Amino acid sequence: MMKEIKKILVANRGEIAIRVFKTAKKLGIKTVAVYSTADRNSPHVAFADEAVCIGEPPSSKSYLLANKIIEVAKKLKVDAIHPGYGFLSENAQFSQKVSDAGLIFIGPRPQAIRTMGSKLAAKEAVKSYKIPMVPGIDQAVTDVEKAVTIAKEIGFPILIKASAGGGGKGMRVVEKEKEVKSQMERAISEATSAFGDGSVFIEKYIESPRHIEIQVLADDHGNFLYLFERECSIQRRHQKVVEEAPSAIVTEEIRQKMGEAAVNVAKSCDYLGAGTVEFLMDADKNFYFLEMNTRLQVEHPVTEWITGTDLVAEQIRIAEGKPISFKQEDLNINGHAIELRVYAEDSFNDFAPSIGLLSTYQPPKGKDIRVDDGFREGMDVPIYYDPMLSKLITFGPSRIEAIEKMIEAIDHYHVEGVETTLPFGKYVCQHKAFRSGQFDTHFVKNFFGEKDRELYYEKEAKIAAKVALLTYLKQKNSLSLPSKIAKPAVKVVFNQ
Length: 496
Ligand code: ADP
Hints:
Blueprint: E1 7-10, H1 14-26, E2 30-36, H2 43-47, E3 50-55, H3 66-75, E4 80-82, H4 92-100, E5 104-105, H5 110-117, H6 119-126, H7 144-154, E6 158-162, E7 171-174, H8 180-195, E8 200-204, E9 210-218, E10 224-236, E11 239-245, H9 252-268, E12 273-281, E13 287-293, H10 300-307, H11 311-319, E14 336-343, E15 345-346, E16 352-353, E17 360-362, E18 369-373, E19 388-396, H12 399-411, E20 414-416, H13 422-430, H14 432-436, H15 443-447, H16 450-477
Parallel strand pairs: 1-2, 1-4, 2-3, 4-5
Antiparallel strand pairs: 6-7, 6-8, 9-10, 9-12, 10-11, 11-14, 12-13, 14-19, 15-16, 17-20, 18-19
Helix pairs in contact: 4-5, 5-6, 12-13
The chain binds adenosine-5'-diphosphate.
The site of adenosine-5'-diphosphate has 19 residues, from strand 12 and strand 13.
């Protein structure tokens, strides 16, 4: 059914609400923001044509209030609701309620969300498509004895995972038989409290894994497309911090295989809209299906940059009942893009949350730099929501140029008042393992320990001192009056 969208409500906050509004404005679509009292002065509220307060700061009293949000949408004669990511974005009931209210949900149909929202149901759905899976069981297990038998069959180490899991929660690595019982109990209780569903299952723990995912698009005209891969292996607590496209290790042949597998996953649940199929890749470059995320991903900008597409515009077209605006054969990879999630976290203290007032907030600007954010100088970082301040994205014709651009952008990003992951991003970009493409999801554990950090800062301090001395000597010997001294770019490249 074709229906033109003239007004969109974004059931979200911060950078992603602004991201969607930007495309809506470009397309001449009117915009509505919703907000909690904690976000009264947020840029996403000011950015929209209209804004409605929907409740108190805790998300259960505002951003998760499905009925309230739909009520606002109807009252303001909105045509469609975009859920962003997080909050209600992967809630099948919400998608259903929006349609039932006669509005368009910019996302997949409820059944696809439901199937892919459960890791076990997802495994079941893709079975007939011969998608490679991590060795393991595809059923929930509660019995410890049975779990031990299965674990022995698969071989240690194993991973106990919550079926309803997300955000790295409810996941436990088990090295030895005697730990199965206690770790299973912990995984079940974590899953029950986080997701209200204690089903857990067992997977082989892939050693030295890389997280590589494929962006897909599907419309109502039978088109299923893949927009190549994103590598998201630089993680902390099983959650992504640095993402890039394309991956440094994916060959054309693997890319096509993964792309086709991802399209099949999308077909298996009759997918509609933009989605992401996540895979793990082992050291021998075998890939295994992990799960599908049925929404726009945080890291979507890197794909947009290398493919020259606007994924939100495609989501809107698809929701209107139109076909995707390009074909598979029109898509090419052009250059390289990297994203750093700038979290209000102290990277040097186990990435602990760092909340407070943003006394200085000056993002970098310039060619090949994109900053998607939802903060302004002088704002508080609220404790109620995800601690992501922004996404810093850089582009380069080659991977190394994109990395250099990222270092430059980080150097020009000034934040005071809270600790951020900016120094961690710079560390990653200067590290030999990352630069050479030889890394896995254990980067933090393997290369960001206290000793590594000490060594790094010692070196950086020494180089900074040398640069300062050279600058001084140069200026002393030259006859010109020292005017403005350009800040030397301090570059440290690891040789381990
Ligand atoms: P969530 O839904 O909680 O994000 P995922 O299944 O997407 O969980 O996995 C998140 C991360 O956990 C992966 O990117 C990877 O780092 C790690 N992981 C998941 N499954 C495995 C596995 N079988 N072996 C090794 N690491 C894994």
